[in-house]
Amino acid sequence: MKKEDQRLWNAIDEILWNDWDPIGINDMAPRNEYSSYTPIIYDLVINVADKETIAIALDEIVTKRIGLISNIEYNRRIAELIINI
Predict the structure, then answer these.
(1) What is the pTM of this model?
(2) What's the Rg (C-alpha) of the chain?
């Protein structure tokens, strides 16, 4: 992976851990708790997905994989952070 790509990957991973944290466990869980979702969001970003597409992907992770209730507005705010990397 190129250095620029690695920086983008790391920045997305940091946002998922520090800002997204849908379970609210980043103060007690292993640091890699959300790392399995980084490739999904990274692929969207490098393929120039818009904010809404990223927000929907985050929301689907929350509802279908993690099993929590949808919060699309929250996921839109996180998607905005990701778009602005």
Answers:
(1) 0.94
(2) 12
